[in-house]
Structure formats: structure tokens, C-alpha cells
Records
---
Amino acid sequence: MTTKTTNATTENDTPYAPEQAPRLQWTKLAPEVYKAMVQLDAAARQGVDPVLLELVKLRASQLNHCAFCLDMHTKDALAAGESVERIVQLGAWEESRHFYTEKELAALALTEAVTVLTDGFVPDEVYDTAAKHFDEAELTHLIASITVINSWNRLGVTCRLTPGHYTAGQFK
């Protein structure tokens, strides 16, 4: 495992842990896969509210422990006008329901059901609630977007992409 030492320190001059280099530069080694993922991502997000989409991407990335995607989508959400408070509360959205609209809550529940398939399926109640808030085309694109962020997360976690260097909108 390769590590990169940085000169970053805390406010009291205590050094941070060294930054780890990515395991694999997958985008350079398989550029055709990367291009296909970018195209799939663009197709999936059609018609989905961009701020809602950032919440969905953040929640899936939290569940998948993808630090790179958490960094990216936090910055993109802030740049899109999302509040720090709603981003912070996202990890406990079920207890912080009053920060989100019913439509956002339905999308977050669907995100969790699609991301964590512990029961082997998406429960009817979760799907039916989402279907009340999204028309069929919008729901299809939302499900596709959730699926795509889960794929990005799996690539990021497996290749151990390094968070902290992304600039909002860098890949748009």
C-alpha cells in the first residue's frame, strides 16, 4: 500500500494522518468503461431534480462508505445551494424528517432500499410511496440514478479513490 505524506496540520499544529494514494487509477486504465459510466450517469439523471439527486448520491455514498463520493457530492450539493444543516442531518434523515419534503423522504427511503438489499428486494411500501411522489418516467430515472451512484461508489471504494481534492462541478 502506497501512502503520501502531506504537510496538513490541525489548528494546534498536530499533523493529520498521511493521505493514502489510490489503489488503482481505473479511469486511466479503462477509459472506455469510465466514458460509458459518465454517459450512463448523464442518461440516468434526466428529469431528476439536481438538488434531490445530490441528496440521493450523498445518502448512497454514506451507506457505501465511499469517501471520494461523499467529498464530491457534498461539494456539489453546497454549490447547488443545499444547506449545510440538511447535509449534516442526512445520516439521520429518519429522525430528522422535518428537514426534508415528503418527496425527498420518499427518494431517500428508496435510495436506502435499493442500496442495501438485505432482504433481497425493495419493499412494496417503499416503492409505492416513491411512486406517489414521482411519475413513472421520473421514478425510472431516479432508480437508474441510485443504481449508477452505487456503481460509482463500488469503484471508488474498491480502488480507494482519495477524497479531498475535488472541486465542485469538476466532472460536470
---
Amino acid sequence: MHHTPRWAVIWACVIAAGLLFVGVSAHVTDLLSHGLHPYDWAPGWLNLYWSSLALFDMLAAVFLITGKRRGIDLACAIMATDLAANWYAVYGIQHSNLAAQPGLQRLIAFAALVLGAAPFIRRHLTT
């Protein structure tokens, strides 16, 4: 982990930040179109969590772009909680499955990228 090439750290941060900005765009669009409760099928707390990601995704992306360790820490927290929230929504509320949910499939891939890369890049970022 100490020998992670600088270019790999930079690319991991840029890719993660770019994908977080995609999330910002989606959450801001939902907020502007539907307010704080864009999903009428989901409980209020889940709607508020997803709406809050407009801010938290933005913070994590900006921290990553500026090379701050808190960016990868926040991104890991976001991915873990967002994955849990979406998994609950798909299985517990919608009674669906992974095969029928491409959005959840993409989220799993992004979570794997962020959580898998975090130990390799965290020590190269500033506090």
C-alpha cells in the first residue's frame, strides 16, 4: 500500500469524484423536480437520506479532487450507507431482486471501487 503509484491514486480520486458528481446531478435533479420526498413508495427517512446525498456526494467529490483524506473517508461512508439503503429499498420495500435492478448493480460496482481502492489511496492523501 505504501508503494501505490501516484498516477493510480490520482486516477482513482478523479474517477470516484466524477461518479460522485453523477450522483450529485441525480439527487439535485430529484430535489428540483420532486422536493425532499422524490420517491412516494419509500419512507420519509429514506427519501431524506437520498436527498441529503446531493450535499454529501458533492463534499466527498470536492475533498477527493483537492486530495483530502476526508474525501475518501466520506466516500466510503456514503457508499456503505447508500448500498445498505438501496439494498433495503430493493429487497425490503419493492420486493425485487438484484437481476431486475441495474441501478443497484451499478451502485455495487461503484461501492466495490471506492471501498476496494480506499486502503491503497488513503495514506497518500492529506489530512
---
Amino acid sequence: MNVGILGTGDLAVALGRAWATAGHSLSVTGRNALHAGQAADQIGHTAKTVDPADFATQADVVVVAVSWEGLETGLSLVGGPQGALAGKTVLDCTNAVDYQTGELKPATGSAAERVARAAAGAHVVKALHLFAGASWPYAGPRDSAPVVAVCGDEPSALDRAAALIRDLGGQTAVIGGLDGSRQLEEAAGFVMRVVAAGHNPRLAVPDVDPVALRAAQAVTD
């Protein structure tokens, strides 16, 4: 798969390296050509830098890994509002959270819905914003693999997202359509607040085995 990464930071590089190892080709672009070149060099020989104007034609899937503040500018650079990304799967990894308060920055809606508006005709999937780049690739036991919750409306885009997450070593949980992405984004703020309070967020949610839960429900029914 030809994966286009819009972004040049740590998450972009970590995801790019993992996907390159899995056999994907990478195209990297961003607002700063020098930074894009450095990110491609860090990813490895299967990654190349492309001009923003040519980015859409080089990618089967587009991964948005930019800061909230640079989101609309980045999408404009690659022709999103003009329909350059129409029909493409676009994974939105934007973390639109205030790191001091944990509050979601958009007053209404979500970053993913902002991406959908700025990438006319694209099939947007919210994914991969909860895990730091250092989480990938995961190479441990399969039953302990990180679960990446995603939101999206287009089945084929969700399938592509799941394939890329699988290549990172993760599992995918589709939790709803794109209109549910605000809740998913707010989960990042919850995690940050638990960490700020001095605790491990893994211990802040119940340990629920879905198989055991279904079995118990079947007995009571």
C-alpha cells in the first residue's frame, strides 16, 4: 500500500517506520520541506518526500499526523478543500486536546469532523491518536495487543484502517460512525488527566472480558 503521511513529528516517523517494516511505501509531506525530508530519512529508504501539490496522487491512504493548530493549513496545502483527497481513506490521528487541562479544543464537533470538512469527499477514519509513537510497532502476545478504537462511516475505509493497524501489531475496535469521534477524542483528555493525577490510566477503567460477559448474560437470559 502507498501510505501518504501528512506530518513530520514523532508520531509520523514512528508510524512510518512501522509501516515501512511491514512492506508499505511511504510518501511524506508537510508545511516545511526540510522537516519533511528529515522525517523521510528517519523512516528509511522506502520513504520519499513529495511536494504538497503532488501528495494526493502518490497515496492510496492518507495519514494526518499534524498538530491541531496546523490541521487546516496542512490539509489546504495538499488540496483537501479542492477535492484532491476525494475517495481516499484518510486516517485522522490529530490529538485536539489541551495538554494542560485535558479539555478538547473544538467547542463543538470533533477534529475528525473538521478533517472531513477540509478534505472534501474523503473517507475519514478517526484512529491512532490515543497511543504515543513509541507504542508502535507492538510485537508482544497477540491477546495483549493494544486495541485501537476507531470511528468512521465508510466500510472500505474502516477495512483499510484495520489492515494498517494490524501491520502495527494492534487490534481494531470500530465503535461507531464519524459522528461519535468527539467521544473518542475526549478519551485522550481523560487519559492525560489520570496521568497528571499520578496514576496509570490502564487501571482507571474496568477490566472486562467480553467473552465472559456474554457467557454470564446468556446464563441470566
---
Amino acid sequence: MVMGRRRPGSYVCGVDAAMDVIGGKWKVLILWALAVRPHRFGELRRELHGVTEKVLAAHLRELEADGIVHREEYDEVPPHVEYSLTPKGVTLNAALEPLGVWGQRNVLASATAGEVGEDDDVALITRGA
């Protein structure tokens, strides 16, 4: 699916459009793995513990259609395919980096200090804040 064709006219902002591209449990983890180096399908599957072959294949197809991931087929025996980030994928990973830092500081750090409970006071995020 090509970006812009998923929900034509329904994006309310750039974040909404970006989240449509990276939505799903595994896409950000795929991007993280491919930022380190290109991977073959089986390598990705082994690295992303718990992902099914079907879901991984679907996510890779979507990321490829969105211009985020490049799929290279090698005409060898046995044939193999390698996935890597496109320049657009590299910029997406760079945009996600501050989000990862935020998660480390505000979620992972909280887990070591004690998790936020259901009854804990947590500040609400408001527009313009």
C-alpha cells in the first residue's frame, strides 16, 4: 500500500500519516533491526521473537510499498532476498530516535523505579503543551 492511499483525505496531521506507516506491533522493531544492517527474512524472524512469518511478510510488503524498506532479490542458488532501509527509511528511523529516547527515560526508567499504577496521578497531555 502506497502512503496516501491507505486512508485518502482522512489524515488530520503529519503524525497521523506517519503513525499509519509505522503502525503495528512489529514495524518499528523491523526498522530498528534494519538500521543496524540489512537482513534476510529468516534473520529478521529470528531477531524479532514472537513475530509470525505471515505478519513479518505483510509488514515488510507494506514498508516496501511505502518506500521505507528495499527488497533486493539475489539470483543465486539457492535464491535469497535481503531487506534494507531506503533513504526514506533512514530518515524515518532518525525521526523515531527522539521517541526512543523518550521511551527510555519515561517508560523504561519508570519500570525500574516502579511501574505507574492504575490509581497513580499522571499528567494528561494537552494540545499545545
